[in-house]
């Protein structure tokens, strides 16, 4: 039985960076399914993957047939790389309700993930994935925040809405990204007061913006950079907690 890890948070906090670092780490060890559930898709670029078609592209072709028709079209949107497979939600070609797309996403998480040891979901920014229940069967929810009041409030709302909707994550942990050392204790105290446990901190690292500007992928980040070193400490804790599920 595999594990499903979802990465959530408000826009701009670095959740795609965390998602891609998780994929980089776990894909060295085991089969990984990466799901980009954000309509504003950035994960393929971070991973250096070219995506020809997304769920949004095929929505119109299966709307009349029902979600079950999606099973025969999985290969149209599933990108198979050497160390991981990538499934991208994308945007519908036409305006309209995302209901079908979200139903397909739930099918992907519920059925496709069974074929992988680890599934990592880069959620859409904000909290819509909770109200749409696209992350209902997540084992480990990671909420990424920055050192801002808005980031803390979004992290609190993730937990509150999950409780309201009776969505039972086996674990929910917070990563504080781009945080100055002098703010760590204050951030951790504020999140603890909200009933959230911080699993680690990642400092501001200029190399992240530099590599993004140059079009380099997360796989090219050197191991000795602050962002990777901090992440490696965090992912070791995540692996230990997964063993307890």
TrEMBL record:
PANTHER family reported for this sequence: CARBON-MONOXIDE DEHYDROGENASE ACCESSORY PROTEIN (PTHR43384:SF7), SEPTUM SITE-DETERMINING PROTEIN MIND HOMOLOG, CHLOROPLASTIC-RELATED (PTHR43384)
Highest taxon above the source species: Archaea
Domain CobQ/CobB/MinD/ParA nucleotide binding span(s) in chain numbering: 5-218
Biological classification of the source: Archaea, Methanobacteriati, Methanobacteriota, Stenosarchaea group, Methanomicrobia
GO molecular function: ATP binding; ATP hydrolysis activity
Species of origin: Candidatus Syntropharchaeum caldarium
Pfam families according to UniProt: CbiA (PF01656)
Stretches that traverse the bilayer: none
UniProt keyword terms in alphabetical order: ATP-binding, Nucleotide-binding
GO biological process, any: negative regulation of cell division
Recorded GO CC terms: cytoplasmic side of plasma membrane; cytosol
Protein name: ATP-binding protein
SUPFAM superfamilies named among the record's database cross-references: P-loop containing nucleoside triphosphate hydrolases
InterPro entries per the UniProt record, alphabetical: CobQ/CobB/MinD/ParA_Nub-bd_dom (IPR002586), CooC (IPR014433), P-loop_NTPase (IPR027417), ParA/MinD_ATPase (IPR050625)
